[in-house]
Amino acid sequence: MSRFPEGFLVGAATAAHQVEGNNVNSDYWAMEQMQYTSFTEPSLAAVDHYHRYEGDISMLAAAGLNSYRFSIEWARIEPREGEFDEREVEHYRKVLECCHAHKVEPVVTLLHFTSPKWLIEKGGWEEPQTITYFARYCRYVTQQLGSLMHYVCTINEANMGLQIAAISARFQVQMMAKMKQAQQGNASEEAAKSTEGSVQVGLNMQKMMANMEKQKAENLEVFGTETPQVFVSARTPEGDILAMKAHQAAKKAIKEVNPELQVGLSLSLHDIQAKPGGEEVAAKEWEEEFLHYVPYIKDDDFFGLQNYTRSVYDENGICATPEGAELTQMDYEIYPQALAACIRKAYALLQLPIMVTENGIAVSDDEKRVRFIDEATKGVCDCIAEGIPVTGYLYWSLMDNFEWQKGYSMTFGLIEVDRTTMARSAKPSLAYLGGL
């Protein structure tokens, strides 16, 4: 019997650049090819979802899932400024039609970290004109494909740039402190692992910092600037608000074309907890991670909540992971209870329908994934029983894929992919989630 109420969306998520492959007009593709790249490996063909989406969506549906969150790639739709590629529009039309043919509700994200390279050459996500460019792109997609969509996330994890700015500063402080006690190599590696485990995206902090100076000249050659402002660059407070204004402009453009579309965005949230004495520090962190965005999203149709773990604070700042705690491949603490806590905190302040647009675990042992899904979804059901309007749970991710700077080593997927043959193999967790 279903764990969830009738009409609840149970599904899985992907992002275009992480699964499609050959996203050659994007900023990330350019960065992956650089000599002094921060990426472990390039994305290349990814898991070839661009050509294999029908089989992947069929596997999802056959397992009992009724929703699929995926992103439309701006760099494919508008590979050069003002030039829209109708062939790519037709590709995404077919993806949407495939979802509907399998009775799967598509949840479409219009920006999942990657941008067209030309946008970054024009100043990227610190340039006010980006608001206009993004709204124009969103309007065009809605004009072409809006009749096939119902739920739209304008921007994925709109708060990620501010989180990266904070952890970059934290990493430098940690590394300097550890360098007084150990040799540089070991100290920086230890600091990198500690810091990377506190942000919900795949980063290589040690490689980023080591290559920073060498990257400047190469960035100038590739992007026309020493400091390209991609969406997940360490963001200024002004750039942070720019992303919110881009969301609002995009929502306005979407609604002018199709007022019936349900529009929101997603934020990356931790279950922020305080030890005695750490209450003030934790409150400040929650303000930066969530509270100051509320005025910009309070009139949205829904809120996309993304959570993977918790963060604990004392009077000195973020605490190390508890000794003996089980960690994921991403160095997150395995803490499925964090999801329900975040839902309760967000709803208390936002009073909007909440869709869990990402929640998952990178582990090689699929039994751990099943246990994580079981615990996390029980928490979602508890929230629903308390009267919180949670409308869906979308696990990250449908397939093992390209985890940004960490490459293909992080296995989040419900489906395993042999990247030599591109053969798919369902893990038991896929059927387990479908059975809920």
Automatic annotation (TrEMBL):
Pfam families: Glyco_hydro_1. Keywords: Glycosidase, Hydrolase. It comes from the Bacteria. Belongs to the glycosyl hydrolase 1 family. This is Family 1 glycosylhydrolase. It comes from Ohessyouella blattaphilus.
